[in-house]
Amino acid sequence: MTEIRRGTLQEQTFYEQVGGEETFRRLVHRFYEGVAEDPLLRPMYPEEDLGPAEERFTLFLIQYWGGPTTYSQNRGHPRLRMRHVPFKVDRAAHDAWLKHMRVALDELGLSEEHDATLWKYLTYAAASMINSPG
Ligand code: HEM
């Protein structure tokens, strides 16, 4: 889809195409509901309250897909692999993470194409976050 801005024809960002902030908030909120119940993942999260972690991840995804850059204004460069070093991300953690993400993504009910784009990125990113053989 396209729209006119300041006289130029611009492509909508992926962020806009899928429904903007609300969509990413719903996705990450549902994901963290799964994490909160997960016996492997929940203990990995250092804070008692998952709210701040939910906010960081939401803002990261919003920025990544072309929305506001609030994440980097608050947190600086993402350096995601480095930020995951304190946590043992092995195959089991990777699988559990993706399982909750799949549930959350299904509930968004995106178009097949948008779903596939997001899922491809998430699976690739999750694989790249593995930092422990098990
Ligand atoms: C593969 C399994 C993964 C596990 C087990 C995992 C676990 C964690 C944990 C325990 C934290 C700390 C929570 C916090 O205090 O923010 C965290 C932070 C974060 N994770 Fe992951 N993660 C995984 C994959 C990913 C992937 C694939 C992405 C991106 C697509 C991602 C993005 C983030 C972001 C943005 C933060 C906050 C970074 C910051 O401090 O600003 N994670 N993750």
Distance between the termini: 44 Å
Radius of gyration, Cα only, in angstroms?
Answer: 16 Å
Q: Helix content range of the residues, please? A: 55-70%
Tell me what portion of residues adopts beta-strand conformation: 5-15%
Structural class: mainly alpha
Number of E-state strands:
2
Q: How many helices in DSSP terms? A: 7
Order of helices and strands: EEHHHHHHH
Main sheet, how many strands, which sense, barrel?
Answer: 2 strands, antiparallel
What general outline do the C-alpha atoms trace? globular
Query: In terms of per-residue confidence, which ranges show pLDDT below 50 for 5 or more consecutive residues?
Result: none
For the largest beta sheet, what order do the strands appear in spatially? Answer: 1-2
Q: What hetero molecules are in the model? A: protoporphyrin IX containing FE
Q: Whole-number average pLDDT?
A: 94
If you had to describe this structure to a student in words, what would you say it looks like?
The chain has 134 residues and is mainly alpha-helical. It has seven helices and two strands, in the order ββααααααα. A two-stranded antiparallel sheet has the order 1-2. The model has no long low-confidence stretch (mean pLDDT 94). The chain binds protoporphyrin IX containing FE. The site of protoporphyrin IX containing FE has 22 residues, from helix 3, helix 5, helix 6 and helix 7.
Give me a quick take on this structure:
The protein has 134 residues and is mainly α. The chain is 60% helix and 6% strand.
